[in-house]
Amino acid sequence: MIPRERRLRALGLLLVILTALLTAFGVPVTSAQGTTLRVVRSEGTLPTDDPWSSAWNAIRPVDVTLSGQAVAPPRLLLPNVPTVRARAMIDGERFAVLLEWTDTTIDEDVIDVSRFADQAAVQFALGSGTSVCMGQQAGALNIWHWKADWAADLAARKDIEQRFPNAPQDEHLPPDLAEGAGLGPDGFLTGRAAGNPRSALVRPSSVEDLVAAGFGTLTSEPLERQDVAGASAYRDGIWRVVMSRRLDNADPNDAPLAVGSAIVVAFAVWDGAKGDRNGTKSVSAWLSLVIPGREMSLLDHWPFLAMMLVVLALGAWLLWIGSRQPAVGLGGPPS
User: Fold this and answer.
1) 3-class DSSP state for residue 232?
2) CB under 8 Å to 88, separation ≥6 — which residues?
3) Can you tell me the distance from the alpha carbon of 330 to that of 190, in angstroms, rounded to the nearest whole number?
4) CA distance 110 to 116
5) Where does the pLDDT of residue 58 fall: very low under 50, low under 70, confident under 90, or very high at 90 and above?
6) Interatomic CA distance for residues 281 and 66, integer angstroms
7) Helical H runs in 58-194?
8) Distance between CA 236 and CA 246 in Å, rounded?
9) Which of 16, 137, 209, 310 could bridge across to 221 with cysteines, CB 3.0–4.6 Å?
10) Containing H/E element for 64?
11) Closest to 35 (Cα-Cα) out of 256, 265, 255, 243
């Protein structure tokens, strides 16, 4: 029978080897359940245009608990959306995140002032110690804000004439004066003349790329730097929204999505049917977004393989030394 001391030594050696193997192949030995969103490397084309793709379904989602935004007015003490499910993928060029939540209605028509759109957002911290509440001067945020009404506008833009077809028409300015002032054919489209993205006739995406450094500082990036794509679909009482962007980006106001890095993120969801808008929203705490490094070949693992060989050699040596020692409590070997 093998002495108990030798069995314990062998068990310890096996645990060391197992830990080394798991580490070598990127399997975490410990994890914080629900606080980390691990990005999955796509084996094929990244499904940025299909929220219900089987590639997304193959990824296990992270359930993220939301709470009401109760810090700054307008406040929401209890969340209208208690949970959002998150998944993320990369390929060689792009990063994509999928948000999924339950909603009993589709709210995408905001022409009437009493209606509000379903919305979702991802915010990335651009520095360490950044406040989850819109950031601060020492640590800004990059925010990707998807809006259901913007997604509907991409298919067929609605304007006030569709909501109130019998409304009287405003007087028109002379064409030369209106066009010269940049006010458009109606002459009173001041939001469009000021460059307000909400007044734009054509939208590049259903997602607005923004930056914030504290309450009251939320700012839309210039049109030429609006580089976040969006795709959304509603099915059987569930919204799915994909937001994506190229990995390489030199804009200092955009989230650094480097391969092999980690960044902290948070989520927000608005339920338009329940009156959510602006600060009235359901929000999460910070969680870690971990982006995998490049794919490694067997040769890339040589440090770990060398370490395992050393461990095996050391373990064999310890077992050999132990076999030459007398068993404790049993006396010496027979003469």
Assistant:
1) strand
2) 37, 38, 39, 40, 95, 96, 97, 98, 289
3) 96
4) 5
5) very high
6) 9
7) 148-155, 160-163, 175-180, 190-193
8) 31
9) 209
10) strand 62-65
11) 265
Inform me whether the pLDDT recorded for 295 exceeds 50: yes
Entry field: residues in the chain = 335
For residues 94 and 48, is the Cβ–Cβ distance under 8 A? yes
Torsion 298-302-304-310 (CA) sign: positive
Distance CA(149)–CA(158), nearest Å, equals: 9
**Sequence-ordered list of residues with C-beta below 8 angstroms from that of 152, at least 6 positions apart, any chain:** 108, 109, 158
What pLDDT, on a 0 to 100 scale, did the predictor assign at position 4? 60
87 contact partners, CB below 8 Å, separation of at least 6: 37, 40, 56, 59, 60, 61, 62, 97, 98, 100
* Alpha carbons 97 and 231: distance in angstroms, whole number: 11
How many whole angstroms from its chain centre is CA 104? 23
83-90 and 40-41 beta bridge pairing = parallel
Q: Which amino acid is at 108?
A: E
Q: b/e per residue, 119-142, with b = 16+ CB within 10 A?
A: bbbbbbbbeeebbbbbbbeeebbb
Helices (H) and strands (E) in the chain, counts: 7, 15
Is 125 in a helix, a strand, or coil? strand
Q: Is the pLDDT of residue 2 over 70?
A: no
Alpha carbons 294 and 292: distance in angstroms, whole number: 7
pLDDT digits (tens, 9 = 90+) for 163-215: 778 877 666 666 565 555 555 555 567 777 777 888 887 888 999 999 999 98
Beta strands in 91-132 (DSSP E): 94-102, 119-125
The number of CA neighbours under 13 Å toward the Cβ of 47 is: 19
CB atoms within 10 A of CB 64: 21
Least Cα distance to 198 among 316, 119, 281, 125 occurs for 119
